[in-house]
Amino acid sequence: MTSPHTIDALTTAETNQLQDLEGRIQQGWQSFLDVGEALLTIRDQRLYRATHANFEAYCEERWGWSARHANRLIGAFEVQRQVGPHGLTLRNEATARPLSASPPKRCPSSRKPSKP
Q1: Is there a domain that residue 6 lies in?
Q2: Smallest Cα–Cα separation from 83: which of 68, 70, 100, 69?
């Protein structure tokens, strides 16, 4: 099902990119991080715009997901991108929720000393 609100056409490269990303989502339950990364790119580059007026409509009509769920998957990918270099790996999307809901905290050692 497509939305009646077509905003503008995609270039051939964007169409190919969208098809690749949608394929990753379709197969992507092997890795929720792949799904989150694909959704992030689709959202940020507005690759849904040829068939849907907004990201929310795209998620609901193409995947049957609420935008909230899609944004949780995106959040999990973003959290993994931050914690991965520290040797941590998320087990599932739900483990990222508490981390994605809070802003990054500064370590006490990273604070500049107070001037007297």
Answers
A1: no
A2: 100
pLDDT tens digits, one per residue of 40-58: 999 999 999 999 999 999 9
Angle of CA points 35, 37, 38, to nearest 5°: 65
59-68: long-range contacts at Cβ-Cβ below 8 A with a sequence spacing of 24 or more? 61/1, 61/2, 61/3, 62/22, 63/25
7 located within any domain: no
Q: Which residues are CB-contacts of 69 (< 8 A; sequence separation ≥ 6)?
A: 59
Residue 113, classified by CB atoms within 10 Å of its CB into exposed (0-12), middle (13-18) or buried (19+), is exposed
Tell whether 43 is covered by a domain: yes
What is the reported pLDDT for 6?
A: 64
